[in-house]
Fold this protein.
Amino acid sequence: MAAGHATTPAHPSRIAILDALRADRVGPVALRLLRLAHADDVFVRREVMDLLSPAWGTPPWPAAAEAALARLADSDEEVRRRAAWLVVRGGGRAVALTALGELTDPVVRTALAGLLGGSLAHLRTDPLASVRFLAHLDALKEAPVARWAALDGALFADSREAARHLDDVGRRRGEALFALGRERHVYAVVARLLGDPGSREIGADLAREACHGWRAAAVALLPLLVRHGGAESSPALAAALTTASLSEAARRTHGALVAGHSPTPGRVTRRPSPAASPPPYDSATAAAVLRARPVDTGRLRQAPHLFGALLDAGPLTFRQAAQLCNLTFKRPGITQAACAPLWLRHAGPTTLPRLLALMTPHLDDYTMGEYYAQGLARMGRHALPAMPALTAVIDRRTRIPVNDSTRDAETTLDERLLAAAIAARRTILTDAAALPPDATAPVSR
């Protein structure tokens, strides 16, 4: 425990402890941890709170909650925060509400209120601003439109003082406004918060949350962020500016404002391109490669180059066509997106409805949508029936749901999906416009 092994993710010691806790809450491991909750070493107390928290199950764990309640008055703030989490998880709502009503420590009371959520109406008159803020925010999530103005005012009144004990005031308010679909309102709130030096950090956090949620937010908010950032921008403002600068529309609209600012979104999932660095296949070498592959193959990274070389030389053999059919129709993914245009070349326009039915549902998939958009682009004018699906991806106001390492990285992935859809639509329309009105559209791409 003191060496940190028991709290290192995926370390055998940690796995063994958690397995033992799940198997037996009154066993020797559980009893030893509960005793260590009162250790002299603050590091040990912190880590015990952390270890006990993931081990709770559907039934409450009174012994863990009791140990956590004793640590709500700990001399270390981090121990108190982790203990609050364990009180809610291990003791249940009633125990946590009782503690919230009896304690005076603002750190603990704020943590408990933030973890409880739901039915906090009686706390809207609490003496602590952070607790009032959370209660008003909880009420806003369920309030009718007629009550929004009053709750907005209460949130404004408590924001600055609440931020003394609540680190994520801006983010929490942004999440609530996003859930309510109040895009236009969030811009006005950001402007008001940024305009007051005392609430500028909150406004920056809210602006960043808005840019993560709505595509147009960066265009609307980037000038405000630049104006209030100045030469010595705070970390919150710098982070918000970085997030806003990830938007291609914002950079295009406000290019002069962001000149010299290079956004660094962190790690973004790398996307291999099936068309990158093509090997020099001719029809003979392509045929040889395919002969070495099984007929029912489901993935083949160089499929576009192999089958492209064969189709350029003439019709596919029966075996090659079977391979291409499997690559196209067996499973969704990069291979299918790359092979669908090739199957169109091989089988002709009669197969287009079936291909589009496979491809268009994946255009908003953050793991594959970029490739399907590129596949539609390679179909050119034949993909015109897919325009409504492409337009739906392009016209949506909110970001496509993504699961990646950071919110900025998720925003970048949405930007890439958007860019791929725009490029595909442009290519398809350009190809269609180049065709004479009375011409017959051959499948030759």
About this structure: The chain is about 60% helix and 0% strand.
